[in-house]
Amino acid sequence: GEAGWEVASIGLVTQTADGLPVDNIDQILDLLRAAPSAEVTPTGTAIEVMGHQLAGYELRADETTEDRWILSADRIGSPPFSLFGYFPNARIFMGETPAGILVASSSEANDPADIPAIDVALGTLIETIEPTGDGLQSALPDGQSLEPADVQESSAVGELDPDGPDALNAVFSPVEPGIYQVANFGHTFAVELAEQWFVQPNFPGLVVLTDMASAGPGDRDAVFFTGVIDAIPVAAGPVPAGDPVPVTTADELIAILGAQIEISGQEEVDIGGKTATRFDVRIPSDATCSQDDPCEYVIRSSSGFVKQLLPTHDHRIWWFDDGVEGPSMIVAMATKGDPFIDSATEMVNTISFN
């Protein structure tokens, strides 16, 4: 739209915005209904896209409801950069195909009266579709995306202290300054947020806190995830540029990153009663990055989540050997020179494990 907030979009969805797999429409509906004040109503209408019938739903929420980044059109196993949100007013059409959930939507209108006009844009967009290859008849061939070998349901949920601070239950919404209990890292911890933060995914095995002004994944965020299994060198796409290498210790991860990567500040630190290895990672601007000599990497967890290390960013990593589902990590990252890394460090230093 001319104002930049009216959106007609179409995507093939196999994962959520936080990198968890999506297998059916009911999972998406559950995510939509979880938004504050959300109302999701079947319209009884459908549209046809590439030979598939997509059922329609009307979405409404209080106009003060923040937009929720719920789905991604990046393939499962790839970092979810193409994010879709559907509130406060939207119409969404969904159909299951062999390749994933096909989603078409007209969204982000502040006024429900604007939805029909955006639907016209959606129809115009759909008319331009010309499938290539197998279209929606099969998933992408092996090797074209980062498909986790074994995606598991994470059971990394700790026990809350009934006499402790409030639980951090927010998801895809801002939280006010205060002290909170976090249970989804496996080992429950308390953390002090000295200023307002935005909670992104907050699910078993994965918690993401971002700067309030962050524009998307990888832009000023602190990611907590458990069950680290391996690291993979990647080229643009990202596509694998080498075989996955199992990782069980911080030293093994550092060795995998290779000679081109700058590692600094490596030390053992106490984080609220647990020992972590902290180190900084930077990919130099003059690094030679190619398919044959990669310098970018993704770190994968057993739940299918991946975290990519980027040449445009600074990264600070806290590595814990004794996670609930295997090694665990906190990764703070921001564009090079951004003071967010220091803010994230101050936050991490307030953590106290039960």
Question: Which features does this protein show?
Answer:
354 residues; mainly beta; 25 strands; five-stranded antiparallel beta sheet; eight-stranded antiparallel beta sheet
Describe the structure.
The structure is a single chain. The protein is mainly beta. The chain contains four helices and 25 strands. The protein has helices at residues 25-33, 115-127, 250-257, 340-348; strands at residues 7-13, 15-16, 39-49, 52-60, 69-72, 83-85, 89-97, 100-107, 166-167, 173-175, 178-182, 189-193, 197-203, 206-210, 221-226, 228-235, 239-240, 245-246, 262-271, 274-282, 296-301, 306-309, 313-320, 328-335, 352-353. The protein has an eight-stranded antiparallel beta sheet, with helices on one face. A five-stranded antiparallel beta sheet has the order 1-8-7-4-3. A hairpin with a 2-residue loop joins β19 and β20 (274-282). The radius of gyration is 21 Å and the shape is globular. The mean pLDDT is 83.
